[in-house]
Design brief:
With about 220 residues, the protein is an alpha/beta fold. Helix content is about 30%, strand content about 20%.
Length: about 220
């Protein structure tokens, strides 16, 4: 399977979302990555339902909604109604993770689970077959523009092994500090989905950066 690119809207221009959404719509990107932060689970607040609904209207590609909130089970249905196609909750925020995964699937959305940098991949051994996507945080969640934590590469390899051994079809998404400088290494380790915020929207030509990220791994012929 060719890897997917999910530009993180957190790094977009909120005073002109329409422009940045159009850019992504017309690019080789696959999803919009949408970061919801509550100021409790993470030390930052981003946005809630009204904005996700507005984004849904602008987006011509699926919304990959990453919930960095406590008690996400209280809001799953509402995020689905707002337009989420993938709903990812944090392992660290869910004492009853198995139940929340079922709850997400019942809405018809794809179910994702995110792991903070300190949480080992083995935490998902009992539920891996139930999950459509695992989001490995490669920075501490809460802010865009942080440095990629290198240990994530080992976690990707371990997770790929677990998924293969179980014959599961779970996607591996990497979130935080991803850009052209490390994407190849991340993909080689076994990732399927690259979230990229700053490296896309702060680049000179975001559309071209998306295209370059998408093409990584394809054979290049030098003249
Ligand atoms: C961090 C968010 C990320 C963030 C990534 O808490 O989950 O999705 O937007 O931003 P960059 O790509 O700038 O690290
Ligand atoms: Zn995210």
């Amino acid at each position: 399977m060719k890897h997917l690119i999910a530009p993180s809207v957190l790094a977009a221009n909120f005073a002109n979302l329409e422009k940045d959404f159009e850019l992504v719509n017309n690019s080789e990107a696959d999803w919009f990555h949408v970061d919801v932060m509550d100021g409790v689970f993470v030390p930052n607040i981003s946005f809630g339902f009204p904005l996700v609904k507005a984004m849904k209207k602008l987006a011509q590609k699926p919304l990959d909604v990453h919930l960095m909130i406590v008690q996400p089970e209280r809001y799953i249905e509402q995020f689905r109604e707002a337009g989420a196609d993938v709903i990812t909750v944090h392992y660290e925020a869910c004492p009853h993770l198995h139940r929340v995964i079922q709850q997400i699937k019942e809405t018809g959305a794809k179910a994702g689970v995110a792991l903070n940098p300190h949480t080992p991949v083995s935490a998902l051994e009992a539920v891996i077959e139930e999950i459509d996507l695992v989001c490995l945080m490669s920075v501490n969640p809460g802010f865009g523009g942080q440095k990629f934590i290198y240990h994530t590469i080992n976690k990707i390899k371990k997770l790929r092994e677990l998924i293969t051994v179980r014959n599961a079809s779970t996607l591996i998404e990497i979130d935080g500090g991803v850009g052209l400088q490390n994407a190849e290494k991340i993909l080689q380790a076994g990732a399927n989905v690259l979230v990229a915020g700053s490296s896309v929207f702060k680049s000179e030509n975001p559309k071209e950066t998306i295209s370059k990220l998408k093409k990584i791994g394809e054979q290049t012929w030098y003249a």
